[in-house]
Design brief:
Strand 2, helix 2 and strand 3 form a beta-alpha-beta unit. Helix 1 crosses helix 2 and helix 7 packs across helix 9. Strands 1, 2, 3, 4, 7, 8, 9, 10, 11 and 12 form a ten-stranded mixed beta sheet that branches. Strands 5-6 form a two-stranded antiparallel sheet. The chain is of the alpha/beta class. The chain is built from ten helices and twelve strands.
């Protein structure tokens, strides 16, 4: 088995020219767009839209990354759309908070709530999980997460973003059902990722979030896009960028316990710009809180979400 590859492109800001060049470089380094997408394919661009916060907060995947990826795909002849099922509010409110509406209309890029769950059997134990049929019906998924800390899992890089394909507040219910044990919850996340099998992942780390992520942390410049097809290699290299021991990341620990091919940093091939000799040493990690939500928390969360959706006029049903 060949060593996994992670591509790195430096990008100091979200200007259109720089992001366009960096996204194009990612695909070139990974073997070309045609390696992942066929003309005519419907392509889900899966961002991290956890809550409707503006771009300067670094809570969501930056609009420039989404727009330039969509343009590249459309010029190639594919049919991209942006879809997610945010924990708070809905995908349309997240788009509005990022001030993307006009740009997407000009490009004729659809936005879809990842709703209409279909019962799917996931993993070795055939756990039944409600995965959005909107996601399942796409020909290709491109995973576009944000580089962030996470108060329950230390960080969120490649793997956890696909949990957003679980429709609506079913995510909170899984926090309750599996959150008592970190390994069980991380195993669920890994198995959902493997089931959905995104063609590739490109991580937005131009501006990242540290501190109490994934919603209320601090936005800070890192200056990178990272890409690849191996999510665990990406998790490892992201950890190394900010001086975190990968062995302390729950996703990586669980992957190794599952005896998956979770590589060590030395066995990962990097292409593009070189990893910095001196990693970021002041990346602030969060104070950890339990993964498991209480039943009361889940009920309150569901009620609050219903009120938000009614107010927005877009329930996603």
């Amino acid at each position: 088995m060949s060593n996994p590859t992670v591509t790195l492109t430096r990008c100091s800001d979200y200007s259109q020219t720089k992001i366009a060049q960096a996204i194009a470089a990612q695909f070139e380094l990974l073997g070309g767009l045609e390696k992942f997408v066929t003309r005519g394919d419907t392509v889900l661009l899966k961002p991290n839209f956890i809550a409707p916060k503006p771009r300067h907060c670094a809570t969501q995947t930056d609009p420039a990354v989404l727009l330039e990826t969509a343009k590249l795909l459309k010029d190639f002849g594919a049919r991209p759309f942006i879809g997610d099922s945010p924990a708070w509010s809905n995908v349309f409110a997240c788009i509005k908070a990022l001030e993307m509406e006009d740009a997407l209309k000009k490009l004729s890029i659809p936005v879809k709530q990842l709703n209409k769950p279909k019962k799917c059997r996931i993993g070795t134990k055939n756990i039944e999980v409600g995965i959005s049929s909107v996601a399942l019906d796409s020909d290709v998924i491109i995973n576009l997460p944000k580089f962030k800390t996470h108060q329950q899992l230390v960080t969120t890089f490649a793997v956890k973003n696909m949990f957003g394909c679980v429709s609506g507040k079913r995510k909170a219910l899984w926090h309750f059902a599996k959150g008592k044990n970190a390994d069980k919850f991380c195993k669920l996340l890994i198995e959902i990722y493997k089931f959905l099998n995104p063609a590739l992942t490109i991580i937005d780390a131009v501006y990242a979030m540290d501190g109490p992520g994934p919603i209320n942390g601090r936005a800070r410049p890192l200056g990178w896009l990272l890409g690849g097809t191996d999510p665990f290699a990406l998790e490892v290299i992201c950890s190394k960028l900010v001086n975190i021991n990968p062995e302390n990341i729950p996703i990586i620990k669980t992957a190794k316990k599952m005896q998956l091919n979770c590589p060590d940093a030395d066995s990962i091939k990097t292409l593009g710009d070189s990893l910095p000799q001196n990693p970021c040493t002041d990346f602030e990690l969060p104070q950890l809180i339990p993964i498991r939500f209480s039943l009361l928390h889940v009920c309150k969360s569901i009620c609050k979400q219903i009120l938000i959706l009614i107010k927005s006029g877009k329930s996603g049903k």
